[in-house]
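Repro:
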Amino acid sequence: MGAVKGARRRPWRPQLTRRERRMGLVFFLLYLTALPLLLGGMVRTLDERLELALTSAQSSAAYYTLILLALIAVFWDFLRNAWAILRDNLRPSLVAFGAGFFAALGLTCLAGLLPLPVTNPEIVTYKAQLVGAPAATWAVAGLLRPAVEEILYRGFLFGGARRESRGWAYLLSAGVFALSAVWQHALFSGNPAYLLLAVQYLPLGLVLSWSYEVSGSVYTPMVLRGMAQTMFLVLAAAAPGQAPPMGL
């Protein structure tokens, strides 16, 4: 009972400065629109000119490394404060991580069993990347992408909306997270049914938001997502056919 009581929601304290909210909004919109083209193109250009022969996984690792460095510069005060919050609330953070980890695995696996008219193409993609560049694939799944997207989806989006409404914060953070994982499949395939795959990512988004609210530190959902995605990647590598979606 003591551990459960320690994991109860604490009064929410706004963590982003006014400057971080302004710059975060610009960065977030660019992340969803222009940055994949701009930085992705830059990585491809460097790859061609330097003849690096990067695999797709290695290109992704370079891309997310650049994004993460930029985010650290933009959200430096927020990230430093989040570390202090984690240190001061270590017990509820550990409880939120443990409960969230098993909830994320279970609910995501259940969501993956839903009958949908399309299958998740990322399963095949990441299984192939594991063969071609395992180190880069593990780095993207377990470290780089969780760090980048938890700063944005939980730290900026959930944290900013939580100032106004708890329900809106959950809906916005988890909903945008789920849709951002699938909209490109729908757009480039011309098949809007791929948007239905968002239901496979929604449970993970809700659990990550909950772990952030309970702990008060963005490092909790960051580590939680990295561990969960590493587990999903293990399952994907071992599965002969389909495996649970990874939120990658």
